[in-house]
Amino acid sequence: MHIKKAVFPAAGFGTRFLPATKAIPKEMLPLVDKPLIQYAVEEAKLSGLEEIIIVTGMGKTAIEDHFDTSFELEILLKERGKKELLKMMEEVSGLVHFAYTRQKKPLGLGHAIGITKNLINDEPFAVFLGDDIIDAKVPAMKQMLDVYARHKSSVLAVQRVARSQAHKYGMIKGEKVGPRVWRVTDLVEKPKLNPPSDLAIIGRYILTPGIFSALERTTPGSGGEIQLTDALKTLAKDEEIYAYEFEGRRYDAGDKLGFIQANISFALKRPELKKELKRFLKSLKL
Ligand code: UTP
Questions:
Q1: Which of 19, 81, 202, 210 has the most CB atoms lying inside 10 A of its own CB?
Q2: What spacing in Å lies between the alpha carbon of 107 and ligand 1's midpoint?
Q3: How far apart are CA 47 and CA 69, in angstroms?
Q4: 21 alpha carbon to ligand 1 midpoint, in Å?
Q5: How far is the CA of 74 from the centre of ligand 1 (A)?
Q6: Whole-model pTM above 0.85?
Q7: Quick one: which atom of ligand 1 is closest to the CA of 129?
Q8: How far is the CA of 257 from the centre of ligand 1 (A)?
Q9: Ligand 1 pocket, 107 CB below 6 A?
Q10: Relative to the CA of 10, which ligand 1 atom is closest?
Q11: pLDDT for res 88
Q12: Vertex 114 angle, CA 228 and 216, to 5°
């Protein structure tokens, strides 16, 4: 079945970025000159997805405004002859079709996905966590859709992490079934000791609609939140789940260090910034 829809859970409080995220959604923090969430939206579009469902919450209206048409701004840019900027603005609002739903309380990532059930209509769908910025030749989600096309089952994006870092991730146990592809046999959320492998789940998923009934059967786990990993564990009992080690570099921009690394690395790709930024970094004599 052709996958058309993508869910973007964006209702978390972004506490790791306080006080910056007190009045501004984390998703709107700029990576060079584009808000974080726009990178993942562009990845979705380049992967052929047609409809984006953003799960928002309190204080997140800036996300809706960002992807809407800004009539006044466009008129002003037209009057001032700023053609390039005008084109950029029109491109943002015309990226794909957007729908919004609200999570009334931040009851967890699993809960945020669960509330999109009526908008998904019993189809497989993609999930993007906008904090994970993936720099890849072939968009990471496009790579995953190819794996989905072969297996017709849920696909989780994974990357290798040092075992000492496993406590920060959902970790999988799997059986290798092809280049970069595993059949998932177990999942453990943030293991403190003895992770089942070095394969960590990161913020890209393709899920079958079976996830909704698995989520309904999931009770709140750590932090009183409905954990997606717990629901995936349930789903793995009913259906096959695959993990795919994507090709590309991932930045955890939801974390201060990852955010700064992503900014430096994306700025170094910009012809207008590259030279001066390199000169500045060298001048730091680290
Ligand atoms: P995070 O664990 O990164 O939480 O959520 P957070 O609130 O965004 O950030 P910190 O940890 O407090 O700094 C992972 C993803 O799940 C979404 C978040 O918006 C983020 O995209 N999420 C999380 C929800 O949509 N609802 C929730 O209840 C929890």
A1: 202
A2: 10
A3: 23
A4: 12
A5: 33
A6: yes
A7: 21
A8: 17
A9: yes
A10: 19
A11: 78
A12: 80
If you take atom 16 of ligand 1, which residue's CA is the nearest one?
Answer: 109
Which residues of the chain fall below pLDDT 50? none
Helices (H), the chain: 36-46, 61-66, 71-79, 83-93, 109-114, 117-120, 140-151, 210-216, 228-238, 256-267, 271-283
Each domain of the chain, given as residue ranges in start order, spans: 5-156+176-184+201-283
36 within ligand 1 shell (Cβ under 6 A):
no
Centre of ligand 1 to C-alpha 9, Å, is 7
Whole-number pLDDT of residue 70: 80
Give residue 96's pLDDT. 85
Write the DSSP string, 220-284.
Answer: P-GGG---HHHHHHHHHHHS-EEEEE-SSEEEETTSHHHHHHHHHHHHTT-HHHHHHHHHHHHHT
245 C-alpha vs ligand 1 centroid, how far in Å? 23
Tokens describing residue 196: 């089942």
User: Which atom of ligand 1 is nearest the CA belonging to 111?
Assistant: 28
Question: Chain centroid to CA 282: how far?
Answer: 32
Residue among 115, 131, 252 whose CB has most ligand 1 atoms within 8 A, to mutate: 131
- Residue the block writes with tokens 């390199």: 278
Encode burial over 264-275: b for 16+ CB neighbours within 10 A, e otherwise: eebbeeeeeeee
Structure confidence at residue 285 (pLDDT): 83
Please give the Cα distance from 254 to 168 (Å, whole number): 13
The confidence score (pLDDT) of residue 169 equals 94
For helices 83-93 and 71-79, give the axis angle rounded to 10 degrees.
160
For the domain 5-156+176-184+201-283, what is the CATH code?
3.90.550.10
